[in-house]
Amino acid sequence: MRSIIRFRFRFAATCLVLVFTLALASCQSPTTSGPATEPTETTAQTTTRVEPTTQPATQPTETTAPTTALTTTETTPSLTEPTQPARTVEQYFPLTPDVFARYSGTGNEYVPMTVYVDYSRPGQVQLAYDNGGTEIHVLYGVGNGKVQILQELPELYVREDLAQLPPLSNGEILLMEPLEVGTTWNVEHGIRAITAVDVPVDTEAGAFHAIEVTTTSSDVVTKHYYARGFGLVQMKAQNGYEIHQQLAERQLHASRSQRLTVYYPRMTQTDIEIVAKEVTVEMKTNTGIREILDRFFRSAAQAFPKRTYIVKPHDTLWSIALYNLGDGQKYKDLAALNGIPSPYTIKPGQVLVLESDTELPALMSPQTVINSVHLQQDRGVVAIDFSRSLVTDMNAGSGFEAALIRSIVNAVGRAYDVPNVLVTLDGDPYESGHIALAPGETFTVDYQGVIVVN
Questions:
Q1: Tell me, what's the pLDDT at 23?
Q2: How many domains does the chain have?
Q3: Coil, helix or strand for 345?
Q4: Nearest CA among 209, 223, 170, 211 for reference residue 28
């Protein structure tokens, strides 16, 4: 189903030439051009000269060296235009963290979308686009006079740091300095140029003055409008019919919810069972799947705070243990945990603790680090790399080690919705005293017999 949705979204996105272009391969190298005699905005203002007739005899003429001319301009401010700072791509493609934006639009069912800031670093920002049909995450480089796509991953439904991947060799360029009319560069299947500056743009989110960037190809003309401090505020495309997208809402200090199922081994009197719990986490910018997994792999108590039960009429400790712990014989454990002496009398309304935090072990030691986690879409596999201390600090028999690894593999596989997980130790195949995998060999996700708790 996702593959069908992905095809439809790619088709629609190609027609729209949206800000997140889904086909990045074979982009041409950028070039900059413009009218030969047209100066940049900064040059036009800083080279303004005072008419010679207005200057005292001791003042330098226009042929004086540039440094002297600048001094003359500063000493006669009333006769010159004030110098304005040059526009930069950082101003029009901001790196602001914890931002949520919603876009509305007409002309195509995939035009409305939401955008979150996944990661924000100096010179880089990663955005997640969701149009209701699929989700794509795009890493941009912002600086050195341009905004360029460094990496992108479609059909990704968790927040993964794309900076851990090698950058694309010819990522598409969205903006290029100087941000003035006439700046032009090549993109795949067309030409992109700045065609206007300070364009009035009215959107649901407000009114802006924006830079207009026009992309012309053989079959479609697309105009993107970028506003200072906001980024993309409007998009228009013309291909026999008109498509219009506009900023409808922008929230600061926003977070994004992520549903995650975590798994832990639990010892019984006769076996080792796997218990699972679905949790909701709130993610700010720079918090992704690696950070979330690290949090829950280190402490089962994060997902399983002490479970409690409110005693009902006619309950006994044996019945409570049977229906909540799967074994009526655990009634003495319940009594000991709750300080109930023999003959184990309980009353309706009494709150019982069903299990202690220590009954569910952490899946990795405090010294263990998750080096990386990444979806290998071509294989349908998630690769997660730990420091070697995952094994050296484990101190578990073969059965319990298998349960620990199964819990890790299930959590990662469920998060990415894949059947196989590649686990490595500092880049090498997983190997311990009990388990040894060949290079590239994976663990299989196994939900059989898992006990789901609330």
A1: 31
A2: 2
A3: coil
A4: 170
